[in-house]
């Protein structure tokens, strides 16, 4: 099996250094975005003007509603800005989080995600793998998918997405360690510029994952879980 080190893709390893988002309080509960009917109409008209200027005939049965559909799709793709209150649920860890216990990893993946790159507003998409070593609390497995998609459904970059998932999980349950591994294809490189069909890998480590053995164990599980 090919190791991560042998892959030809771009590989970026993120650490705890740098400016982190504010994840204090109930950060996952944000006011829903409010777009008035007048704004929707204005946005739709602007999109129609752009599409028409770029060559799309908006007078066919298949294209008359395209600006409206595009606007609704863009709103849905960025739904992460509306938060997700269901992330509040956690449970006591079975072993009570005693430091004497050998580190035991919870690993989930692959979790599919889709994002819009903030540089070109073009999609990038891929899979996420999350590992954590529980402290006093554990989180429902489905909440890990919710956590990824909360931050993925925004305008973002892959490096930030991994950092936010790691710090979001840390804020929710204060685990002893967190690992986040993302693999994604970026349409901004596929369809423009260098037109290169590469994939980008980013990995984020927190807490006890400073231990090289735990990191190797996590990455070995990632390899085995790949579809």
From TrEMBL:
Q: Which UniProt keywords apply?
A: Hydrolase, One-carbon metabolism
The GTP cyclohydrolase I domain covers which part of the protein?
44-222
Q: Give the EC number(s) under which this enzyme is classified.
A: 3.5.4.16
Judged by the first EC level, this protein's enzyme class is: hydrolase
UniProt keyword Hydrolase, yes or no: yes
Write out the pathway annotation from the protein's UniProt entry: Cofactor biosynthesis; 7,8-dihydroneopterin triphosphate biosynthesis; 7,8-dihydroneopterin triphosphate from GTP: step 1/1
Catalytic activity entry: GTP + H2O = 7,8-dihydroneopterin 3'-triphosphate + formate + H(+)
For the keyword Hydrolase, the answer is yes
The protein's matches in InterPro entries, at most eight in alphabetical order, are given as: GTP-CH-I_C/QueF, GTP-CH-I_N, GTP_CycHdrlase_I, GTP_CycHdrlase_I_dom
Pfam families, A to Z:
GTP_cyclohydroI (PF01227)
Protein name per its UniProtKB record: GTP cyclohydrolase 1
Origin species: Mycobacterium paragordonae
């Amino acid at each position: 099996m090919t190791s991560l080190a042998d892959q030809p893709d771009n590989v970026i390893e993120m650490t705890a250094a740098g400016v982190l988002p504010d994840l204090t309080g109930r950060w996952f509960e944000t006011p829903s975005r409010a777009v008035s009917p007048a704004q929707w109409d204005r946005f739709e008209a602007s999109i129609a003007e752009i599409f028409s200027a770029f060559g799309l005939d908006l007078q066919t049965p298949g294209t008359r509603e395209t600006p409206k559909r595009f606007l609704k799709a863009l709103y849905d793709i960025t739904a992460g800005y509306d938060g997700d209150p269901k992330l509040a649920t956690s449970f006591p860890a079975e072993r009570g989080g005693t430091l004497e216990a050998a580190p035991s990893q919870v690993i989930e993946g692959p979790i599919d995600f889709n994002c819009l790159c903030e540089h070109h507003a073009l999609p990038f998409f891929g899979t996420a793998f999350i590992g954590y070593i529980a402290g006093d609390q554990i989180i429902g497995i489905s909440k890990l998918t919710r956590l990824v998609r909360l931050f993925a459904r925004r305008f973002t970059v892959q490096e930030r997405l991994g950092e936010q998932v790691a710090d979001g999980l840390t804020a929710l349950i204060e685990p002893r360690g967190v690992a986040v591994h993302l693999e994604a294809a970026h349409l901004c490189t596929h369809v423009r510029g260098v037109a290169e069909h590469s994939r980008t890998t980013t990995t984020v480590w927190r807490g006890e994952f400073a231990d090289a053995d735990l990191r190797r164990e996590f990455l070995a599980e990632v390899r085995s879980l790949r579809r």
